[in-house]
Amino acid sequence: MSELAVELRDVVKTFQTPEGTPVNAVDRVNLQIQNGEFFSMLGSSGCGKTTSLRMIAGFEWPTSGEVFIAGQPQGHKPPFQRPVNTVFQNYALFQHMTVFDNVAFGLQMAKRPGDEIIRRVGEALEMVKLGSMEKRYPRQLSGGQQQRVALARALVNRPQVLLLDEPLGALDQKLRKEMQVELKLLQKEVGITFIFVTHDQEEALSMSDRIAVMSLGKVLQIGSPVEIYERPNCRFVADFIGETNFLEGQVRAVDGEKVIVFVPALEAEIAGVGYQSFHNGQQVSLSVRPEKIHLAEQPPDGQKSFPVRVTQVSYIGSDTRVLVQAGKTTLKVAEQNKISTLDPDAYFQNGEQAFASLTPENTLVLPVDEVP
After folding, report:
1. Residue 251 has pLDDT above 80, yes or no
2. What one-character-per-residue DSSP string does 165-195 give?
3. HSE-up (13 A, CA, CB side) for residue 179
4. For residues 353 and 276, what is the distance between their CA atoms, to the nearest angstrom?
5. pTM for the model
Protein backbone atom coordinates (compact mmCIF):
# COMPACT_ATOMS: atom_id res chain seq x y z
CA MET A 1 0.00 0.00 0.00
CA SER A 2 1.27 3.46 -0.87
CA GLU A 3 2.42 5.68 2.00
CA LEU A 4 0.60 8.53 0.28
CA ALA A 5 -3.16 8.71 0.52
CA VAL A 6 -3.40 11.38 -2.19
CA GLU A 7 -0.88 12.96 -4.53
CA LEU A 8 -1.32 15.76 -7.05
CA ARG A 9 1.45 15.95 -9.65
CA ASP A 10 1.75 19.15 -11.70
CA VAL A 11 -2.03 19.49 -11.75
CA VAL A 12 -3.51 22.29 -13.85
CA LYS A 13 -7.21 23.05 -14.22
CA THR A 14 -8.12 25.60 -16.86
CA PHE A 15 -11.54 27.19 -17.24
CA GLN A 16 -12.81 29.52 -19.93
CA THR A 17 -14.20 32.88 -18.79
CA PRO A 18 -17.49 34.10 -20.36
CA GLU A 19 -15.28 36.30 -22.59
CA GLY A 20 -13.44 33.20 -23.82
CA THR A 21 -10.18 33.86 -21.95
CA PRO A 22 -8.51 30.77 -20.41
CA VAL A 23 -7.83 31.02 -16.65
CA ASN A 24 -5.87 28.52 -14.56
CA ALA A 25 -8.00 27.96 -11.44
CA VAL A 26 -5.32 25.49 -10.33
CA ASP A 27 -1.81 26.21 -11.59
CA ARG A 28 0.83 23.43 -11.49
CA VAL A 29 -0.08 22.22 -8.00
CA ASN A 30 1.98 19.48 -6.35
CA LEU A 31 0.70 17.95 -3.11
CA GLN A 32 1.60 14.83 -1.16
CA ILE A 33 -0.87 13.87 1.57
CA GLN A 34 0.04 11.07 3.99
CA ASN A 35 -2.20 8.22 5.11
CA GLY A 36 -4.10 9.11 8.28
CA GLU A 37 -3.31 12.81 7.99
CA PHE A 38 -5.67 15.71 8.69
CA PHE A 39 -4.67 17.96 5.79
CA SER A 40 -6.23 21.36 5.12
CA MET A 41 -6.26 23.49 1.99
CA LEU A 42 -6.59 27.10 3.09
CA GLY A 43 -7.19 30.25 1.10
CA SER A 44 -9.67 32.93 0.16
CA SER A 45 -12.43 32.51 -2.43
CA GLY A 46 -11.07 31.79 -5.90
CA CYS A 47 -7.69 30.49 -4.71
CA GLY A 48 -8.20 27.01 -6.20
CA LYS A 49 -8.74 24.98 -3.04
CA THR A 50 -12.27 23.74 -3.83
CA THR A 51 -11.35 22.99 -7.45
CA SER A 52 -8.40 20.92 -6.18
CA LEU A 53 -10.74 19.00 -3.86
CA ARG A 54 -13.22 18.41 -6.68
CA MET A 55 -10.44 16.95 -8.84
CA ILE A 56 -9.55 14.51 -6.04
CA ALA A 57 -13.24 13.60 -5.75
CA GLY A 58 -13.64 13.16 -9.51
CA PHE A 59 -16.21 15.95 -9.97
CA GLU A 60 -13.63 17.77 -12.12
CA TRP A 61 -10.81 16.37 -14.23
CA PRO A 62 -7.37 17.98 -14.55
CA THR A 63 -6.56 19.83 -17.76
CA SER A 64 -3.05 18.43 -17.31
CA GLY A 65 -1.18 16.58 -14.59
CA GLU A 66 -2.49 13.64 -12.61
CA VAL A 67 -4.27 12.83 -9.35
CA PHE A 68 -3.17 9.68 -7.50
CA ILE A 69 -5.12 8.00 -4.70
CA ALA A 70 -3.31 5.24 -2.77
CA GLY A 71 -0.64 5.30 -5.47
CA GLN A 72 -3.09 4.67 -8.33
CA PRO A 73 -3.62 7.25 -11.10
CA GLN A 74 -7.28 8.26 -11.27
CA GLY A 75 -7.36 9.49 -14.85
CA HIS A 76 -10.98 10.29 -15.73
CA LYS A 77 -12.60 7.93 -13.21
CA PRO A 78 -16.02 9.13 -12.06
CA PRO A 79 -16.56 9.82 -8.32
CA PHE A 80 -18.30 6.50 -7.56
CA GLN A 81 -15.22 4.57 -8.75
CA ARG A 82 -12.87 6.41 -6.37
CA PRO A 83 -12.21 5.32 -2.74
CA VAL A 84 -13.28 8.73 -1.42
CA ASN A 85 -16.42 10.33 -0.03
CA THR A 86 -17.27 14.03 0.16
CA VAL A 87 -19.04 16.05 2.87
CA PHE A 88 -20.46 19.36 1.63
CA GLN A 89 -21.24 22.63 3.40
CA ASN A 90 -24.98 22.28 2.78
CA TYR A 91 -25.07 18.66 4.11
CA ALA A 92 -27.10 17.46 1.03
CA LEU A 93 -29.34 15.24 3.19
CA PHE A 94 -32.54 13.69 1.83
CA GLN A 95 -35.24 15.58 3.70
CA HIS A 96 -37.91 12.88 3.18
CA MET A 97 -35.70 10.16 4.67
CA THR A 98 -34.98 9.35 8.30
CA VAL A 99 -31.48 9.65 9.72
CA PHE A 100 -31.09 5.88 9.40
CA ASP A 101 -32.13 5.86 5.73
CA ASN A 102 -29.88 8.81 4.91
CA VAL A 103 -26.86 7.01 6.33
CA ALA A 104 -27.86 3.66 4.84
CA PHE A 105 -28.43 5.03 1.33
CA GLY A 106 -24.97 4.27 -0.08
CA LEU A 107 -24.97 0.73 1.35
CA GLN A 108 -28.45 0.08 -0.05
CA MET A 109 -27.32 1.27 -3.49
CA ALA A 110 -24.39 -1.17 -3.21
CA LYS A 111 -26.94 -3.91 -2.36
CA ARG A 112 -25.26 -4.85 0.92
CA PRO A 113 -27.10 -7.46 3.07
CA GLY A 114 -29.75 -6.05 5.41
CA ASP A 115 -28.10 -7.20 8.64
CA GLU A 116 -24.79 -5.65 7.53
CA ILE A 117 -26.53 -2.35 6.75
CA ILE A 118 -28.16 -2.26 10.19
CA ARG A 119 -24.84 -3.00 11.92
CA ARG A 120 -22.75 -0.52 9.94
CA VAL A 121 -25.29 2.30 10.16
CA GLY A 122 -25.52 1.73 13.92
CA GLU A 123 -21.73 1.89 14.22
CA ALA A 124 -21.53 5.06 12.13
CA LEU A 125 -24.25 6.83 14.15
CA GLU A 126 -22.60 5.86 17.44
CA MET A 127 -19.33 7.22 16.09
CA VAL A 128 -20.93 10.66 15.61
CA LYS A 129 -22.97 10.40 18.85
CA LEU A 130 -26.37 10.15 17.18
CA GLY A 131 -27.24 6.56 18.07
CA SER A 132 -30.60 7.50 19.59
CA MET A 133 -31.81 9.63 16.66
CA GLU A 134 -32.00 7.17 13.78
CA LYS A 135 -35.79 7.60 13.38
CA ARG A 136 -35.74 11.40 13.18
CA TYR A 137 -35.91 13.42 9.99
CA PRO A 138 -33.33 16.11 9.08
CA ARG A 139 -35.85 18.90 9.81
CA GLN A 140 -36.04 17.65 13.42
CA LEU A 141 -32.28 18.06 13.94
CA SER A 142 -30.10 21.05 14.73
CA GLY A 143 -27.47 22.24 12.24
CA GLY A 144 -24.72 20.46 14.14
CA GLN A 145 -26.69 17.21 14.24
CA GLN A 146 -27.38 17.40 10.51
CA GLN A 147 -23.67 17.86 9.90
CA ARG A 148 -22.99 14.72 11.94
CA VAL A 149 -25.51 12.77 9.87
CA ALA A 150 -23.64 13.89 6.73
CA LEU A 151 -20.39 12.70 8.31
CA ALA A 152 -21.90 9.35 9.28
CA ARG A 153 -23.24 8.88 5.74
CA ALA A 154 -19.75 9.50 4.35
CA LEU A 155 -17.96 7.31 6.90
CA VAL A 156 -20.34 4.34 6.67
CA ASN A 157 -18.88 3.47 3.25
CA ARG A 158 -15.39 3.24 4.80
CA PRO A 159 -13.63 5.48 2.28
CA GLN A 160 -9.84 5.61 2.21
CA VAL A 161 -10.07 9.41 2.08
CA LEU A 162 -12.78 11.75 3.39
CA LEU A 163 -13.07 15.08 1.56
CA LEU A 164 -14.66 17.98 3.46
CA ASP A 165 -15.64 21.09 1.51
CA GLU A 166 -16.10 23.88 4.11
CA PRO A 167 -18.39 21.53 6.11
CA LEU A 168 -18.75 23.86 9.10
CA GLY A 169 -19.42 27.05 7.15
CA ALA A 170 -23.18 27.10 7.84
CA LEU A 171 -22.86 26.73 11.63
CA ASP A 172 -22.85 29.54 14.19
CA GLN A 173 -19.52 30.38 15.79
CA LYS A 174 -20.00 28.52 19.09
CA LEU A 175 -21.25 25.34 17.43
CA ARG A 176 -18.56 25.64 14.78
CA LYS A 177 -15.82 25.60 17.44
CA GLU A 178 -17.42 22.60 19.15
CA MET A 179 -17.61 20.73 15.84
CA GLN A 180 -13.96 21.54 15.11
CA VAL A 181 -12.95 19.67 18.27
CA GLU A 182 -15.34 16.78 17.54
CA LEU A 183 -14.19 16.47 13.94
CA LYS A 184 -10.53 16.29 14.93
CA LEU A 185 -11.28 13.66 17.60
CA LEU A 186 -13.36 11.69 15.10
CA GLN A 187 -10.54 11.74 12.55
CA LYS A 188 -8.11 10.34 15.12
CA GLU A 189 -10.64 7.68 16.10
CA VAL A 190 -11.38 6.41 12.59
CA GLY A 191 -7.78 6.88 11.43
CA ILE A 192 -8.55 7.72 7.80
CA THR A 193 -7.20 10.63 5.80
CA PHE A 194 -9.23 13.84 6.03
CA ILE A 195 -8.72 16.56 3.40
CA PHE A 196 -10.41 19.72 4.60
CA VAL A 197 -11.08 22.88 2.60
CA THR A 198 -11.62 26.15 4.47
CA HIS A 199 -11.12 29.90 4.18
CA ASP A 200 -10.98 30.21 7.99
CA GLN A 201 -7.33 30.34 9.09
CA GLU A 202 -8.14 29.78 12.79
CA GLU A 203 -10.10 26.66 11.86
CA ALA A 204 -7.20 25.31 9.80
CA LEU A 205 -4.66 26.05 12.55
CA SER A 206 -6.71 24.35 15.27
CA MET A 207 -7.52 21.15 13.38
CA SER A 208 -4.78 20.30 10.90
CA ASP A 209 -1.65 18.19 10.95
CA ARG A 210 -0.48 20.16 7.90
CA ILE A 211 -1.83 23.08 5.89
CA ALA A 212 -1.41 24.14 2.27
CA VAL A 213 -1.91 27.88 1.87
CA MET A 214 -3.16 28.71 -1.62
CA SER A 215 -3.53 31.89 -3.66
CA LEU A 216 -4.44 32.43 -7.32
CA GLY A 217 -4.31 28.70 -8.07
CA LYS A 218 -0.84 28.16 -6.56
CA VAL A 219 0.32 26.52 -3.34
CA LEU A 220 2.48 29.10 -1.58
CA GLN A 221 3.49 27.10 1.49
CA ILE A 222 2.88 23.69 3.06
CA GLY A 223 3.66 23.05 6.71
CA SER A 224 2.40 22.35 10.20
CA PRO A 225 0.24 25.00 11.88
CA VAL A 226 3.25 26.13 13.91
CA GLU A 227 5.43 26.43 10.80
CA ILE A 228 2.79 28.32 8.85
CA TYR A 229 2.18 30.81 11.67
CA GLU A 230 5.71 31.24 13.03
CA ARG A 231 7.70 30.87 9.80
CA PRO A 232 5.61 32.11 6.86
CA ASN A 233 7.75 32.04 3.71
CA CYS A 234 6.25 35.13 2.07
CA ARG A 235 4.31 38.26 2.81
CA PHE A 236 0.99 36.82 1.60
CA VAL A 237 1.13 33.86 4.01
CA ALA A 238 2.20 36.08 6.92
CA ASP A 239 -0.71 38.41 6.20
CA PHE A 240 -3.31 35.70 5.60
CA ILE A 241 -2.55 33.60 8.68
CA GLY A 242 -3.49 35.57 11.78
CA GLU A 243 -2.68 39.24 12.19
CA THR A 244 0.69 40.86 11.70
CA ASN A 245 2.40 44.24 11.40
CA PHE A 246 4.51 44.97 8.34
CA LEU A 247 7.41 47.39 8.41
CA GLU A 248 9.09 48.17 5.09
CA GLY A 249 12.83 48.72 5.00
CA GLN A 250 16.22 48.11 3.43
CA VAL A 251 18.81 45.55 4.49
CA ARG A 252 21.85 47.16 6.09
CA ALA A 253 23.76 44.05 7.25
CA VAL A 254 23.48 40.25 7.14
CA ASP A 255 25.14 37.86 9.60
CA GLY A 256 23.83 34.34 8.99
CA GLU A 257 20.12 34.43 9.90
CA LYS A 258 20.46 37.79 11.67
CA VAL A 259 19.45 40.68 9.41
CA ILE A 260 19.68 44.40 10.23
CA VAL A 261 17.02 46.46 8.45
CA PHE A 262 16.69 50.25 8.33
CA VAL A 263 13.00 51.16 8.67
CA PRO A 264 12.30 54.72 7.43
CA ALA A 265 8.91 54.91 9.17
CA LEU A 266 10.65 54.44 12.55
CA GLU A 267 13.89 56.15 11.50
CA ALA A 268 15.66 53.24 13.19
CA GLU A 269 17.57 50.05 12.48
CA ILE A 270 15.67 46.92 13.51
CA ALA A 271 17.24 43.47 13.95
CA GLY A 272 15.30 40.46 12.73
CA VAL A 273 15.73 36.89 11.56
CA GLY A 274 15.69 35.85 7.92
CA TYR A 275 15.37 32.21 6.87
CA GLN A 276 15.95 33.01 3.21
CA SER A 277 18.90 34.59 1.42
CA PHE A 278 19.17 38.40 1.75
CA HIS A 279 21.78 40.92 0.66
CA ASN A 280 22.73 44.48 1.57
CA GLY A 281 20.49 47.10 0.00
CA GLN A 282 17.60 44.69 -0.62
CA GLN A 283 14.08 45.97 0.01
CA VAL A 284 12.33 43.74 2.55
CA SER A 285 9.28 43.56 4.82
CA LEU A 286 9.50 42.93 8.55
CA SER A 287 6.61 40.89 9.95
CA VAL A 288 5.86 41.21 13.68
CA ARG A 289 2.82 39.57 15.28
CA PRO A 290 0.77 41.87 17.58
CA GLU A 291 1.19 39.56 20.58
CA LYS A 292 4.98 39.68 20.20
CA ILE A 293 5.31 43.43 20.65
CA HIS A 294 5.83 44.39 24.28
CA LEU A 295 4.50 47.68 25.64
CA ALA A 296 5.91 49.25 28.79
CA GLU A 297 5.63 52.58 30.57
CA GLN A 298 9.43 52.84 30.74
CA PRO A 299 12.13 51.73 28.28
CA PRO A 300 13.03 48.10 29.16
CA ASP A 301 16.65 47.40 30.05
CA GLY A 302 18.75 45.66 27.43
CA GLN A 303 16.08 45.73 24.70
CA LYS A 304 15.67 47.82 21.59
CA SER A 305 12.61 50.04 22.12
CA PHE A 306 11.08 53.21 20.70
CA PRO A 307 8.50 55.68 22.01
CA VAL A 308 4.87 55.30 20.93
CA ARG A 309 1.52 56.93 21.66
CA VAL A 310 -1.61 54.87 22.34
CA THR A 311 -4.39 55.82 19.89
CA GLN A 312 -7.03 53.13 20.47
CA VAL A 313 -7.76 50.48 23.12
CA SER A 314 -10.21 47.58 22.64
CA TYR A 315 -10.83 45.16 25.51
CA ILE A 316 -11.96 41.78 24.13
CA GLY A 317 -11.68 39.57 27.22
CA SER A 318 -8.70 37.28 26.73
CA ASP A 319 -6.59 40.21 25.59
CA THR A 320 -6.62 43.92 25.02
CA ARG A 321 -5.98 45.15 21.48
CA VAL A 322 -3.97 48.36 21.40
CA LEU A 323 -3.18 50.58 18.41
CA VAL A 324 -0.10 52.74 18.84
CA GLN A 325 1.43 55.47 16.71
CA ALA A 326 5.11 54.67 16.22
CA GLY A 327 6.96 57.28 14.20
CA LYS A 328 5.16 57.49 10.85
CA THR A 329 3.32 54.17 11.17
CA THR A 330 0.63 52.48 13.25
CA LEU A 331 1.27 49.18 15.02
CA LYS A 332 -1.23 46.63 16.33
CA VAL A 333 -0.37 45.24 19.78
CA ALA A 334 -2.13 42.41 21.67
CA GLU A 335 -1.68 42.50 25.44
CA GLN A 336 -2.79 39.30 27.19
CA ASN A 337 -5.03 39.91 30.21
CA LYS A 338 -3.31 37.72 32.79
CA ILE A 339 -4.81 39.45 35.85
CA SER A 340 -8.53 39.74 36.57
CA THR A 341 -9.11 43.34 37.61
CA LEU A 342 -11.42 46.32 37.12
CA ASP A 343 -8.63 48.78 37.85
CA PRO A 344 -8.41 51.08 34.79
CA ASP A 345 -4.74 51.71 35.54
CA ALA A 346 -4.04 48.05 34.70
CA TYR A 347 -4.75 48.81 31.02
CA PHE A 348 -3.22 51.30 28.62
CA GLN A 349 -5.40 54.34 27.92
CA ASN A 350 -5.92 56.47 24.80
CA GLY A 351 -3.32 59.19 24.49
CA GLU A 352 -0.91 57.51 26.90
CA GLN A 353 2.81 57.50 26.09
CA ALA A 354 4.62 54.16 26.17
CA PHE A 355 7.62 52.28 24.82
CA ALA A 356 7.36 49.38 22.35
CA SER A 357 10.09 46.77 22.12
CA LEU A 358 10.72 44.27 19.32
CA THR A 359 12.97 41.29 19.94
CA PRO A 360 15.01 40.00 16.96
CA GLU A 361 13.69 36.44 17.32
CA ASN A 362 10.11 37.71 16.97
CA THR A 363 10.83 39.95 13.97
CA LEU A 364 10.71 37.98 10.72
CA VAL A 365 12.42 39.32 7.59
CA LEU A 366 10.56 38.53 4.37
CA PRO A 367 11.12 39.37 0.71
CA VAL A 368 8.74 41.97 -0.69
CA ASP A 369 7.63 39.61 -3.45
CA GLU A 370 4.39 37.91 -2.41
CA VAL A 371 4.99 34.62 -4.21
CA PRO A 372 8.02 32.61 -3.00
Report:
1. yes
2. ESTTTTS-HHHHHHHHHHHHHHHHHH--EEE
3. 22
4. 36
5. 0.88
